[in-house]
Amino acid sequence: MQSVGDAYIRPGQVLTDRSALSAASRWTQAVSLLLLLLPATGCGTPPVTVPPVTSPVTTPPSTSSVPAPAEPRARATVQVPHAASGRYAVVRGGAPPRPGPGTVVRYLVEVERGLPFDPRTFASDVHRTLNDERGWGRFRRVDHPPVRVRVALSSPRLTRRQCLPLRTGGKLSCWNGTRSVINALRWAKGVPQYDGRLSDYRHYLISHEVGHALGHGHRPCPGRGRLAPVMAQQSKSLGRCRPNPWPFPGRNSRERHQTEDRRR
User: What is the pLDDT of residue 252?
Assistant: First the structure.
């Protein structure tokens, strides 16, 4: 038995009296109204109305709204002092060379006291660069002599003193016969030639100055559009070449292909 309002209708009952007809009329009106409302309400997820691209709707801010998260701020540039303590401190600890054949070069890392850099982070960056597949070879970091080379992060003033009689102008780095002197100003800011790719420029700095320690001299740009040799003076100018931080830039892909061939 169905129930609509106050009237009760049994199945098969014929509605003849006025009250029954009135109840049926009200029942018919209710069903009609329900059918009209069904398309508007529905039972599923309401359709999403996408505003036209040509006329986006901007919702004005309100005091009750939750503010959107702020854009991440750019990392502040490290402020390198012109002079620090003038004394080096050896970064304690060591690190093994990368696997593979070849002579292992012993080296240590020094950081001038008072510079705004974490010594262990600098030492880790140096070691990763030297032992990259595209680098000079295999290097073991130690914290005591004998060593083939010392990599020393230095303030501009100490760099100038360490590099005499070479003239660095407080900006360049050098190899002075015992140390690969890395100018902290360049380490922090890079050079325009590397177009903001500071990590690549740092790879170049280490590779270039340690290259001198291994007996490599300066080399010119081989031609327009080609990769600059790592022993080119890229801190001064690229000439017609493109920047390149590695002694053997193609070795990475070549060794990867050789590894894949061995796995087949």
Answer: 72
Residue 120 burial (CB count, 10 A)? 13
CATH topology of domain 88-250: Collagenase (Catalytic Domain) (3.40.390)
Q: Tell me the CA distances in angstroms from 247 to 32, 56, 95, 187, 220, one per residue in order.
A: 84, 53, 21, 19, 14
pLDDT tens, residue by residue, 205-248? 999 999 999 999 999 999 999 999 999 999 999 999 999 999 99
Question: Which structure tokens are listed for 68?
Answer: 């959107």
Cα separation, 116 vs 175, in Å, equals 23
Tokens of 207: 């590779």
| Tokens representing residue 210 in the block | 């340690």
| DSSP SS3 for 108 | strand
The terminus-to-terminus CA distance of the chain in angstroms comes to 77
What's the whole-model pTM score? 0.68
Tokens found for residue 69: 């998260």
